[in-house]
Design goal:
325 residues, mainly alpha, 11 helices, disordered N terminus
Length: 325
């Protein structure tokens, strides 16, 4: 028996290695960046700090903000639309304006990691609307699943339109995309009962959102997200030029999905994404390191600032008693 006044049991803490892994990844990334940047500074006969200071001093920050602020706001609206659409499909009818504080406040936690932010949305909907936690977790899993194929699809389009401007290693993208497409078709068929009809795997609660879901819903989520990536290809190309690196929007469309995959890696500061920028543009180490730092960190902190606008409402709704099941 438990005491009547006792609160809910705390979930077990993750293993030490799981808590340490994001920080170890970040340490490894910044160690690599230090070596690359210090080498680039020495080739120009400079110390590292003056070398980076010169890069930052050469950027027109007013023009940069004019590109990044509207893009970040657009991303917030697109991402909120995805959450609204998926939650309305699989969990409960919900108004778009009621999703804004959910998504906005979760961006604050996304400073550490995007997946933590999605977990916060699941908790929010469970507390506010009484939606079972496993159902919301399933919807967040559906969003992440679609995001993988959305990025891979656009990476393939970007490669096909500007393959001559991309590194040779990017030639594996269409092969990966082809295999992923076959997997997606098999996945949809399995969860619609057309493959392995007797399997109990599809009955697991965390896979609730996939059960019986037609392919068009996956494609709908990808289509809703697409304006954000198309806009990003132009915005990031324009910002790169402000840092002194000339890259076209079509080529950027090939680079961005790969970098965004890196940005999803656990760890603060989006360190893996910054390393990818430096690696993908050899000879521009200082410019692309500075570019990566300000692009990714402005983006997450600006969206977190949007979240602060919604935080009072989010707190009020979380403190309310959840509706009876």
């Amino acid at each position: 028996m438990t005491d009547a006044g006792a609160g809910p049991a705390r979930p077990p803490r993750p293993a030490l290695w799981k808590r340490a892994l994001p920080w170890l990844i970040t340490l490894a990334c910044f160690s690599y960046l230090y070596v690359r940047l210090d080498g680039a500074a020495q080739r120009e006969g400079q110390e590292l700090v003056p070398y980076l200071a010169r890069v930052f001093a050469g950027v027109s920050w007013g023009h940069w903000l004019a590109l990044m602020v509207p893009y970040s706001a657009l991303y917030f609206l697109v991402d909120t639309t995805v959450v609204w659409r998926v939650v309305s499909w699989f969990n409960a009818p919900i108004r778009f304006r009621d999703v804004l504080p959910i998504r906005g406040s979760s961006f604050i936690l996304s400073i550490v990691n995007e997946q933590i932010g999605k977990g916060a949305m699941a908790y929010y909907l469970n507390r506010r609307d009484g939606v079972p936690g496993w159902e919301v977790a399933s919807s967040m899993l559906f969003i992440m699943f679609c995001e993988f194929f959305y990025l891979l699809g656009w990476a393939t389009i970007g490669w096909s339109m500007s393959r001559a401007e991309l590194p040779e290693i990017f030639a594996v993208i269409p092969w990966i995309a082809g295999a992923a497409l076959l997997f997606l078709l098999a996945w949809v068929s399995f969860f619609r009962g057309r493959i392995a009809a007797g399997s109990t795997l599809r009955e697991r609660p965390v896979l609730h959102a996939f059960r019986g879901t037609p392919l068009r819903r996956y494609l709908t989520v990808m289509a809703i997200r697409s304006p954000a990536l198309v806009a990003a290809s132009f915005v990031y190309a324009g910002c790169a030029r402000l840092f002194g690196v000339d890259v076209g929007a079509l080529a950027m469309l090939g680079y961005l999905p790969v970098v965004f995959f890196g940005a999803a890696t656990p760890g603060p500061m989006r360190s893996v994404a910054i390393v990818l920028w430096v690696t993908l543009f050899p000879g521009h180490e200082g410019q692309m390191a500075a570019f990566g730092v300000v692009q990714h960190n402005f983006f997450i902190f600006f969206n977190a600032a949007i979240g602060l606008l919604f935080l009072p409402r989010a707190q009020r709704e979380l403190l309310r008693e959840p509706p009876a099941p």
